[in-house]
Amino acid sequence: MAIETISNTQVLFNSVPVGEPTETDFKVVTVAINPQSHLQENFLLIKNLWISLDPYMRGRMRNPEKGSYSSAFELGKPLTAGAVGEVIQSNSKLYNVGDVVLGHFDWANYTVAHEKAIQQKIDQSKYKFPLEAWLGLLGMPSLTAYYGLVHIGKPKAGETLYVSAAAGAVGQVVGQIGKKLGLRVVGSAGTDEKVKYLTETLKFDAAFNYKNGDFKENLKKFTPSGIDIYFENVGGEQLEAVLDLMNENGRIPVCGMISQYNGAAYGVKNLFNVIGKRLLLQGFIVGDHYNIFPEFLNWMMENTSDGSFFYETTISEGIENAPKAFIGLLKGENTGKQLIKNI
Amino acid sequence: MAIETISNTQVLFNSVPVGEPTETDFKVVTVAINPQSHLQENFLLIKNLWISLDPYMRGRMRNPEKGSYSSAFELGKPLTAGAVGEVIQSNSKLYNVGDVVLGHFDWANYTVAHEKAIQQKIDQSKYKFPLEAWLGLLGMPSLTAYYGLVHIGKPKAGETLYVSAAAGAVGQVVGQIGKKLGLRVVGSAGTDEKVKYLTETLKFDAAFNYKNGDFKENLKKFTPSGIDIYFENVGGEQLEAVLDLMNENGRIPVCGMISQYNGAAYGVKNLFNVIGKRLLLQGFIVGDHYNIFPEFLNWMMENTSDGSFFYETTISEGIENAPKAFIGLLKGENTGKQLIKNI
To answer: Judging by beta carbons within 10 Å of its beta carbon (0-12, 13-18, 19+), is residue A156 exposed, middle or buried?
Structure first.
């Protein structure tokens, strides 16, 4: 073991954003870790390799008294994220030095973590995926897509699926699972480049730029038989337009409402459609559904091994660039899963 | 058979209301039926005994091009309603003169109806209920209450149920079924008299007047453990307040949104609760669920025969008073089921 002090760059939660977060809501600091200091029992020192950034984290950047499904980040402490890391030191009976693990670690080079922060050891001999796949293709967003579409959407071949934020981490998987299941898949995104990606690379049946022209007219044009499943990532005005175009007995897995996280919420005025069309809206948090992880893993093995399943990530290098990457994520500047590579 | 002409007072759909319906949107006419004119095959002449008025009918008073779950009433023709009537003449193999039947007939003294307009013959020897019970206690609103609460709400003893429009035709049954199933039942209504009725007569655990004071504060006060099931009859601002008070994994059977039927719809701004709290919203139309009628009938027999189940109706006499009664119904002037007695 080297004697030198380990230099650990961390991103701290500096202030609760007013509206969209800015860089001043974060604080990048470098602290020293003494590699000879004793780890408490059941604790480990993890070196992060990959860190996942996700829109839900905006909801955690709040004052602690506001209730939500995930606890608030602590002001002055590092933000946390799903991550893949390597065990550098271990005072745990469950994990050894050199293990590569999936868990919930700091936005930092290193995390001193309780063993409970680790979700699982990654068996690289059994699952031959690149490590970042565990945060992406096999990660929380894909499990989210699978659970929402399959278990709530209950798709039947021939039905029409509309997915908003379709080029996002969840959306692109939703659409591709939909195609595998025989659905007509329509998606929207915020740039023409993403739209092209959806139709040309992901083979969606149709896609359009929600910023161009009349959203509802465009959606209607691309869903001539109406919408049976709306995989909801956006909320607000999009939800309102979709409600008018849903078919009877339609299902809406409510995964996210990214348009509603920053600033003023939009009032949805046509919820009466829920009655007349017998619609189901079911909110869900993927964290409740890790019991289906084996089923999901099997499905992914069967359906992605032939190379027909496309997964794109936006990789930013260096912990110190995480705030900028996260701000960009909330503005839709990424394509697909946003990762930080610890260099 | 008498030779005299039968005088038939009918209420016609005269004009599409702008906002709340007024009496000029209806037209009361008296036409003659020649009792000797030949009935077409499978048709019957029905004398109405009881007619049910329901808020959903407002939605049918529209121009025919607007989609909804029930077809538009036809301008210049009688409005129609669930009704109990007696067969006066029959050219049907299924029903005989003298049969008392439940069906969908005109707002009128008499209807010439196809046998398909009849839902069932009422066996008065087997089911010893007063005839109007088939439109009330055993009628569509109670089946609505039962289906929504039991099949969508999936109540567990000890949970908290909130029901809006609780003194209405559906609401009063929802609350009482809830009490039988061991729920804490909280309701709201629009007058202090109705509130008293809910707590004193129907034995709700709590009730309040939604027009007095801060709605959300009142509701919060009466639901100290939060809300597990919201039986939604009102929509709009009430739904918005309730969403903030729902417990995790809460269920919202969406039965009606009476606040949204007339004029400007309210925009619900906090649907993000659906995600964080993993809420279910499920719209339903009772007409889809008549397959559970036997189950429902058995439950009602078991639970209402001891007299502990209270059912109230507002009875208006005379077909010609139906428009006024219907307008009053939409304004909440009735208590419980609104019926017209044909005299």
So the answer is: exposed
Please tell me whether residues A159 and A260 are part of one structural domain: yes
Q: Which residues of A touch B271 (CB under 8 A)?
A: 235, 239, 254, 257, 260, 268
- Three-class SS state of B320: helix
Residue B302 lies in a domain: no
CA-to-CA separations, A205 to A187, A247, A326, B295, in angstroms, rounded: 8, 18, 30, 44
CATH number for the domain including A25?
3.90.180.10
Q: Nearest to residue B338, comparing CAs of B312, B309, B319?
A: B312
Mean pLDDT of chain A: 92
Q: Chain B 209-268, CB below 8 Å of chain A: which residues?
A: 235, 239, 248, 254-257, 260-261, 265-268
Average pLDDT over residues A162-174: 93
Tokens 């029409």 belong to residue: A160
Interface mutation target, options B237, B242, B269, B271, chain A, most CBs of A under 10 Å: B271
Which of B153-159's residues contact partners 24+ apart within 8 Å by CB, and which partners? B153/B229, B153/B231, B153/B251, B153/B253, B154/B251, B155/B181, B155/B182, B155/B183, B155/B228, B155/B229, B156/B228, B157/B181, B157/B182, B157/B183, B158/B182, B158/B183, B158/B184, B159/B183, B159/B184, B159/B228, B159/B229
Residue span of the structural domain in which A246 resides: 140-287
The predicted pLDDT at position B69 comes to 58
Q: What pLDDT digit, counting tens, does each position of B274-315 carry?
A: 999 999 999 999 989 999 988 998 898 888 877 778 987 899
Residue-wise pLDDT tens digits, A218-235: 999 999 999 999 999 999
| Chain A CA closest to residue B71 | A276
3-state per-residue secondary structure call for B209-277: ECCCCCHHHHHHHHCCCCEEEEEECCCHHHHHHHHHHEEEEEEEEECCCHHHCCCCCCCECCCCHHHHC
Interfacial A residues in 66-85 facing B (CB < 8 Å): 67-69
Query: Which chain A residue is nearest to residue B256, measuring alpha carbons?
Result: A275
Q: Examine the domain organization and report whether A12 and A121 are in the same domain.
A: yes
For the stretch B164-180, pLDDT in tens is 999 988 999 999 999 99
Checking ipTM against 0.85, whether it exceeds it is no
